[in-house]
Amino acid sequence: xxxxxxxxxxxxxxxxxxxxxxxxxxxxxxxxxxxxxxxxxxxxxxxxxxxxxxxxxxxxxxxxxxxxxxxxxxxxxxxxxxxxxxxxxxxxxxxxxxxxxxxxxxxxxxxxxxxxxxxxxxxxxxxxxxxxxxxxxxxxxxxxxxxxxxxxxxxxxxxxxxxxxxxxxxxxxxxxxxxxxxxxxxxxxxxxxxxxxxxxxxxxxxxxxxxxxxxxxxxxxxxxxxxxxxxxxxxxxxxxxxxxxxxxxxxxxxxxxxxxxxxxxxxxxxxxxxxxxxxxxxxxxxxxxxxxxxxxxxxxxxxxxxxxxxxxxxxxxxxxxxxxxxxxxxxxxxxxxxxxxxxxxxxxxxxxxxxxxxxxxxxxxxxxxxxxxxxxxxxxxxxxxxxxxxxxxxxxxxxxxxxxxxxxxxxxxxxxxxxxxxxxxxxxxxxxxxxxxxxxxxxxxxxxxxxxxxxxxxxxxxxxxxxxxxxxxxxxxxxxxxxxxxxxxxxxxxxxxxxxxxxxxxxxxxxxx
Length: 513
Ligand code: TEU
Prior knowledge:
Helix 5 (168-183) runs parallel beside helix 6 (210-222) and helix 11 (322-338) runs parallel beside helix 14. This protein is of the alpha/beta class. The longest helix is centred in the middle third of the chain and has 17 residues, at 322-338. The relative contact order is 0.11. The strands form three sheets. It has an eight-stranded parallel β-sheet. Strands 12-13-14-16-15 form a five-stranded antiparallel β-sheet. Strand 5 (143-145) and strand 6 (151-153) form a beta hairpin. The protein has helices spanning 30-35, 37-43, 78-90, 109-116, 168-183, 210-222, 238-243, 256-260, 265-279, 298-301, 322-338, 367-371, 423-427, 433-447; strands spanning 10-14, 47-50, 94-99, 126-127, 143-145, 151-153, 188-191, 228-231, 252-253, 287-288, 342-346, 453-455, 462-467, 471-476, 488-492, 505-510. The two termini are 29 Å apart. Helix content is 26%, strand content 13%. It binds 1-O-alpha-D-glucopyranosyl-D-fructose.
């Protein structure tokens, strides 16, 4: 791959706990991931991004990190992680890991030291009383009291104490952590909650000093070949967002504006234009994201009356037309994959998995659910263990799971109806979501990726553009079928009708020369 492999990459997000269980204990692990590397190679992705794989009490699915230099025993060992990195590289797949610099875990050595010794509290935000009335992003107060009476700040769960980035030790620690993983061959890091690190007494989002952190991190990354920094930056203001992508800061950042869009031609076109307008002048490639481990799955979201995504708006029990959502998710995938820049695929997206909305309350694990008093269903519904094969749960998720007495069930239950959605069932079905993704990713590799886009004239319910290679992408978001421009149809998200592109369908065409 070129020096700039990441500019046009297709990056597959692995939520390790739910990907594949290699030892039958009910939780996904590195052994499971390693055994499915050929599947990912065959799917046609360029890189894997793994959610946190570090030792963790799992107060927030691993985003509460107890040790940044080791692997959670449920997932495997450091030696296995190194083996995984080598095996991925042998297949030509890059490896991106998650780094969580905003907060730690109450089980981290630093926090335990701070609890034991009030003189060792400066790496976190401790105070005699809460310094403000901030609310945790998961609900409830952002301050928790410790037994000796002081309070500490946690923007997320109480199990996730925030670091004090005014302390130089915190800077040094994370630069060392980056080197620790780059030395082990990791190709990039996804930076969790990247805009929240720096705090004043009254604000914590997007303070200017945060850019100094990333300038320094960029210097560290540049000590190595082709290592990239990817920001998780949720900011409504695109000008502010673009500041993270200046040439001496992060390489790319997730495009949450696009992810949050309704299935609506004007909204999508606005977001695409805005994205290109903010990225092009600074030379940063855009990213296109439809799903991740925090977001209602697109098949479900696009089947509702309100197809946009907003945090806290992930309410379950909303009437949903899953067939409609599925058709739109196919069309959206081809649209996203045709846009210039890199694209993310969240595990299970390629299988067309819906959100699981009917989990029994007692199995829900996301702290958002408990901390909102149950008013927010949380994010467990998009984190259900993948269905690989077979006719009944656990659908090949675990080698041992469910096959004998004492075998553990997957950590979240899978719906019976997923028998139709297993990777095995979809492999031989040419019309399946899996084969749509596979074909699209292969064509994308040949004809798309980084570069420019030219809009074509079209009706207002249609998005039509060509790419440098001549590939034309047309998405019909209107109710009526529309004619296609001249050219050979290479791929379509659904069948054409009398040569016309039906509602909620995308086609890719090659121009006739
Ligand atoms: O997410 C940051 C973030 O802002 C989200 O928490 C978002 O507000 C929430 O998911 C609502 O849906 C990152 C991770 O992606 C998320 O999984 C973690 O829970 C969070 O950081 C804390 O580490």
